[in-house]
Amino acid sequence: MKKIKNILFDLGAVLIDIDYHKVAAAFANLGIKNFELQFSQLNASSLFEDLETGKISEAEFHKAIQQQTGMPLESDLINNAWNAILLDFRKESMACISSLKNQYQIYLLSNTNAIHLTKVNEIASKQLGVKVLDEYFHKAYYSHVIGLRKPHKEAFQFVLDDAGIDAEETFFIDVMSYAYDNLVEQRHCLQQNVLMSFCYWIKRADKNSFSHDNIFVQIYKFLKHII
Fold first, then answer.
1. What 8-state DSSP symbol labels residue 12?
2. What is the pLDDT along the chain (227 residues), one digit of tens a residue?
3. CA gap 98, 92 in Å, rounded
4. β-pairing, 105-110 with 139-142?
5. Non-local CB neighbours of 192 within 8 Å, separated by 6+ positions
6. Can you point out the beta strands (E) in 59-163?
7. Residue 143 and residue 116: Cα distance in Å, rounded?
8. Contacts 24+ apart (CB under 8 A), 76-80
9. Are the beta carbons of 63 and 75 closer than 8 angstroms?
């Protein structure tokens, strides 16, 4: 097993809290009925993936929402409702990143879009005192900028190639089981023994017994154990 030199973080539900229910409530407040049905239909199309890979613009996204809902919603109203998913940064987790940055190359890989990223940086400025979230990382990779999304292996390979880092020296932190399962199954990008061990730990853990910030304490201990 090679020594871990790089840590790759996801963003949503890892560093910043998110709430899908708040998006539904926000659009419902705009008068959109059957939100879940309408947006599940949009989700079945390529709209969200196109937005998160930069294939469509904000204006095209707004137009698609207007057409689906049948309402002439203003762009700002759509953005505000869309951004309702974003809550607060986990400050202790961010402080942990700052500490880890002295020992490892720290990267971010997030499935996101231009609308959300603008809001994320606004929240980061208010809550963390930085101009942009990127300041926490040696480099940040956003799906709509690189044109690739997780869990597709091409997204991870892009990061490895662009950063010039070794997969076997890289540790990926994400809370989505699809990411772990996909990476283990396809056997690419990350140090497999590390990934499988962490996957095993996170799945067995009683998530009700500790806070999300406590997870980072456990990760710290985990990293110290394996390096």
1. B
2. 567 788 888 899 889 999 888 988 998 888 887 777 766 666 657 888 899 999 999 999 999 989 888 889 999 999 999 999 999 998 888 888 888 888 899 999 999 999 999 999 999 999 999 999 999 999 999 999 999 998 788 888 899 999 998 887 888 887 655 444 544 444 444 444 444 444 434 444 444 443 444 555 556 555 554 44
3. 10
4. parallel
5. 184
6. 86-89, 105-110, 139-142
7. 12
8. 77/30, 79/115, 79/119, 80/26
9. no
User: Which amino acid belongs to residue 77?
Assistant: L
> What are the tokens at 175?
């809370």
Which tens digits make up the pLDDT trace of 175-208? Answer: 655 444 544 444 444 444 444 444 434 444 444 4
Q: How far apart are CA 225 and CA 193, in angstroms?
A: 13
Nearest CA to 49 among 36, 64, 34, 38?
A: 64
**Distances from the Cα of 92 to the Cαs of 75, 119, 149, 159, in angstroms?**
34, 20, 27, 26
Helix (H) / strand (E) element for 168: namely none
**Count of residues for the chain?**
227
Peptide bond into 72 cis (omega under 30): no
Closest by CA position to 175, among listed 157, 209, 149, 199: 199
Residues paired with residue 107 on neighbouring β-strands, in sequence order: 8, 139
Q: How many CB atoms lie within 10 A of CB 215?
A: 21
The tokens of 17 are what? 């809290």
The secondary structure of the chain in percent helix, strand, coil, rounded to multiples of 5, reads 60, 10, 30
Task: Give the Å distances, CA to CA, from 14 to 75, 130, 175.
Answer: 29, 18, 7
Instruction: Tokens for 119, please give them.
Output: 């809001």
